[in-house]
Amino acid sequence: INYDEYLGTVKDHANNVIEYVGDKIGYFGNSDTLQPGYVWENHYYDEETISQLLTRIDTPLFPEDQVNKANIRKTYQENLKLYRDTISKEIDEPQVEDLVRDNGSNFNAGNAVPATILSLVRNEDLNELIESIKQIEEKFNAKFNYPYTFLNDNEFTEEFKESVRHLLPDEREVRFGKISEEDWNIPEIVDKEKYKQGIELLESEGVSYASKESYHNMCRFYSRTFYKHPLLKDIKYTWRLEPGVKFYCDIDYDVFKFMSDHNKIYGFVLNLYDSPQSVKSLWKDTRSFLQDNPDYINEEGSFDWIKENMQKSVNFNITEGYSTCHFWTNFEITNLDFLRSEPYEAYMDFLESKGGFYYERWGDAPVRSLALGLFADKSQIHWFRDIGYNHFPYTNCPNSAKCDKRCSPGSFTPWNDLEIENCQATWMKYSMTDDDLNLY
Ligand code: GDP
Ligand code: MN
Asked: Fewest C-beta atoms under 10 Å: which of 73, 135, 257, 427?
């Protein structure tokens, strides 16, 4: 081997994708000591089990003849009360023995989790991003020193990089990466005429961002591509951060360690209904994927949450079988092993072949949520009740002494007519055990 040449090739390649790299590579921690969290093993279900599973995912949670105005109203009131009662209960941290705390010095030197705070952003998002970084640093990361990774379909400007660096301690690892055109742009297989017609329909139905191609690119990227970026090669957990979000409460333990030590593959804070027009064929297509790949289905999946057809029965009807409940992915802490697994990747390839990221406006949130609801054990999905968070127009605000006064406990949104968009109660009822509910 000609090492110089080899090194040259590697560096050339790196230059294509890594615009700027801090000088502390090798600081991301060590996977060897971690629980795998998610390992895909084929279930090899027998015929009868397959037929039972498919029946479960075909059966609405409530019998269709019970879905009427009175029951919708009743369920909604019940859900609202359950949500408010739960979230206004005073809590502190997860009640487990092994929370890992900041020991005051050099926390991340050796045994940290290979994790990063991850943000896909545009240069013009800088000011709002700065607000998000300041808050996540103040409430969490100044104690734990996890690195940041910023991705962009354009080159980051010097101003952007300097401004971000300036916010953070010198020794903090910060990576800026570019997304290749191939990974970002609309793929060849998309029929341009069909795309145009799809958009026109969605526009007429008032679906937001329908005609914004970059938004479709973004949703597709966050669904099926981001975790393959070279900058995330050695990363096992990502905490997604968006510009303009707020963090209200001190987080005094290492949430990545918590995820790893407690075998969680996904952490979320908000759980919502989606715009059903944007995912009109997603469930139908998913259903046919499951027909061909029943072994991917997890018997402990969150089926009832997917099949809930009361609070927003109209969503369930438009999508022909999906509640549209989803984790709001602008906040998500993800074990990438799950995304890198056979079921997830096969599902992504299938969805890509259907073109729905463009013909409709499939969001990464419903896509990720269906994958989790179908292929993951619900006990591996964690509601971080203690992380006070806002992304306009929704808030997760616990009643905790760790929270500052900017949010009022229990308030989900200031707009009454948006309360119905909250699907958290459904998650609580059908996907959380008593132990989960009593964890805080
Ligand atoms: P919303 O939360 O659904 O309203 O969508 P956002 O506009 O917040 O976009 C979601 C995330 O993707 C944010 O972190 C944005 O900064 C990022 N994003 C959206 N569109 C683009 C884009 O065209 N290029 C880049 N680099 N980032 C984008
Ligand atoms: Mn956003």
From this structure: 73
- Cis bond before residue 393 (omega within 30° of 0): yes
87 and 419 in contact (C-beta within 8 Å)? no
Ligand 1 atom closest to the CA of 241, numbered from 1: 14
Distance 304 CA to ligand 1 centre (A): 30
CA dihedral 277, 63, 435, 428 (to 10 degrees): 30
- Atom 16 of ligand 1 has which residue's CA nearest to it? 121
Is 23 inside a domain boundary?
no
| Domain assignment of residue 198, given as a range | 45-437
Cα–Cα distance measured from residue 143 to residue 106, given in angstroms and rounded to the nearest whole number: 9
Give the H/E segment covering residue 220: helix 213-224
Q: Residue 214's beta-bridge partner residues?
A: none
pTM over 0.90: yes
In a domain, 156, yes or no: yes
User: Rounded to an integer, what distance in angstroms lies between the CA atom of residue 157 and that of residue 245?
Assistant: 22
In a domain, 8, yes or no: no
Q: Please give the DSSP secondary-structure letter assigned to residue 138.
A: I
For the stretch 96-153, pLDDT in tens is 998 988 765 545 544 578 999 999 999 999 999 999 999 999 999 998 889 999 999 9
Q: Tell me whether residue 332 is one of the annotated catalytic residues.
A: yes
φ, ψ dihedrals at 83, nearest 5°: -60, -50
Ligand 2 center from residue 244 Cα (angstroms):
7
Is 288 a domain residue?
A: yes
In the chain, the number of structural domains is: 1
